[in-house]
Structure formats: structure tokens, C-alpha cells
Specification:
With 294 residues, the protein is an all-alpha fold. The chain contains twelve helices and two strands. Residues 1-22 are annotated as: Disordered.
């Protein structure tokens, strides 16, 4: 896995510069601009602004100093300030209003600040590692969710929040509303974590999703990808609804592998069907006192 990641990173380095240039020409922030390894000066500047916000120097909904003033304060160019603010905007920390300035939009206490710092520091290989960890935990969540539904006296009540996210995705597809689809896609995984009944698991998944925030928001832009994600979500839901833990877990694994491929394709222009070394044929660990029969 480590050797494969190095090969992927080397391939990516050949195209990353051109990809970032193209993203900037389109008025977008290239995903790798939020990592320390892509531009250390921008990363340090973004981290410095983040630290000032965390220290209470700038309040939520308050306006940051003008670019020229920030550049003078930090000893960097206005271009560096502009890109650092763009990074923080992608992460949801600030909002840049053209002609008005940059405003603080997110508090940075506790876990929120840590997640943002990790986002600033993660390199390509670490993102792949996070994808692997998240995938395994999503599989566990699907398995536990099916178990919970199987054991519940009111399974439909438990499933209602998850089913609503599917309805939202279906509506977004019909109306071709990408923003809504991304929102309901995220909600699906949040509700799945809740349905698992494991509070720690749900919080871990939320944290990992925060780390992947930039990548996730650059994915599922193509209708074909959205339709595939919806079909995969629906298939997992049906197995959970039937209380079939093994089937739900396997379908979720398939979804996470294809979803990770889509993330990499959308963010790094690299597609590979073998992101994970683990086999779906590997023995599945038992849940509780035993497996639920299919």
C-alpha cells in the first residue's frame, strides 16, 4: 500500500501544477492548495490567520483587516494573503465578499480547530490513508445499522431519518440541483452513523468527514456520478432495512471503494480501481454474539 501510494503521488506531481493553474483560471481553489506540502508560505499564512481567530483577535461575523494590511502585518505578499483567505474560505472559516472584505464565519474552538489544522497539514498520502480509515468505519456503521434495525421493535421509525436523505437525493437529481445533492449525500452518511447506535463511531465518522471536506465538495459534480452514488446508497439502505448485516456491509464497502475512486478522480485527476489492498472476500468479524443470517 505504501509503495502504491508513492507511485500515485509521483504520477500526481506531474499533473498537479497544471491542474492547480487550470483551477485558478476557472476561479476555483485547487484542492491541494489546502495542504502544507503544496505551498508552505500560503499554509503558514492561513495557519497564522486561523490562530488569530482562535485567540479571539477576530470575532465570528467580524471583518478581517484588508488584504494590504494583513500582508504588511505578516510580511507576505497580497497574493499570498489572497490565496490563504481562499483556503480558509474553502474550509468554511471565512467568507470573502468582493468589494467588502473577508468575514469570520466559523468558531475555531476545540475539535473544530484541530480538524482545520489537520486539513492544512495533510498531504496526498495522508488523504488516501484517511479515505481508507473512513471506508472501514462506514462499513462497520452499515453493519451495526442493520443489526439495530433487525433488533428494533420499531424499525421504520429508526429508518425514517435515513430514508429522508434518500428522498432528498432523488429530488435533487430530478431537479439537477448539485448543491442539494451534495448536502443530502453528506446527510445520508451522518444518519447512517447515528443509526449504528455507536456514539463514538458516529463522532469519528463526522471528524473524518471534516478532514475530507475539501475533497468531498469537489466530488459528485457529474450527474453520472450522482446517479451512481444514489443507487449505491439505495442498495445499502435496502439491505439495512431487511436487517442483513453482511450484505449491507459488503455493499457499503463497494460504495466506499467506488466513491473513493470518484474523489481521487475529481480532486487529483487520477483514477484507479485498486485503491485498497484488502479483499472483499476476507472473513468478516462478528457483531455482538454472532452474525445476523441473510
Amino acid at each position: 500500500m505504501a509503495e502504491r501510494a508513492k507511485v500515485l503521488e509521483a504520477e500526481h506531481e506531474e499533473t498537479s501544477s497544471a491542474a492547480r493553474k487550470l483551477s485558478l483560471e476557472r476561479g476555483e481553489v485547487a484542492p491541494l492548495n489546502v495542504t502544507a506540502r503544496s505551498n508552505t508560505e500560503v499554509s503558514r499564512t492561513a495557519q497564522s490567520i486561523l490562530n488569530d481567530i482562535a485567540a479571539g483577535k477576530y470575532e465570528v461575523d467580524g471583518r478581517l483587516p484588508a488584504e494590504r494590511q494583513l500582508a504588511a502585518m505578516m510580511g507576505v505578499s497580497r497574493a499570498t494573503i489572497r490565496e490563504a483567505l481562499s483556503v480558509l474560505e474553502v474550509l468554511g472559516v471565512v467568507e470573502v465578499q468582493h468589494g467588502s472584505g473577508a468575514y469570520v464565519r466559523m468558531g475555531t474552538g476545540g475539535m473544530v480547530r484541530n480538524v482545520i489544522r489537520w486539513q492544512l497539514e495533510l498531504g496526498y498520502n495522508e488523504y488516501v490513508d484517511v479515505l481508507q480509515v473512513r471506508s472501514s468505519l462506514e462499513v462497520l456503521a452499515a453493519r451495526l445499522a442493520a443489526t439495530a434495525v433487525h433488533q428494533s421493535k420499531e424499525p421504520m421509525r429508526l429508518l425514517e431519518p435515513l430514508s429522508q436523505t434518500l428522498l432528498g437525493q432523488e429530488t435533487a437529481l430530478r431537479e439537477e440541483n448539485q448543491a442539494d445533492f451534495v448536502r443530502y449525500d453528506a446527510a445520508y452518511h451522518v444518519e447512517l452513523g447515528e443509526l449504528s447506535g455507536n456514539r463514538t463511531l458516529a463522532e469519528l465518522l463526522s471528524t473524518l468527514r471534516g478532514l475530507l471536506k475539501v475533497w468531498l465538495e469537489h466530488s459528485a459534480k457529474e450527474r453520472e456520478d450522482q446517479e451512481l452514488a444514489y443507487k449505491e446508497h439505495l442498495a445499502v439502505y435496502r439491505e439495512i432495512q431487511m436487517g442483513r448485516s453482511n450484505a449491507a456491509a459488503k455493499l457499503m464497502w463497494n460504495h466506499m471503494v467506488s466513491g473513493s475512486d470518484r474523489l481521487i478522480a475529481a480532486n487529483l485527476q487520477a483514477t484507479d480501481r485498486h485503491l485498497f489492498d484488502e479483499s472483499l472476500d476476507a472473513p468478516e468479524p462478528p457483531v455482538g454474539n454472532g452474525e445476523i443470517p441473510d
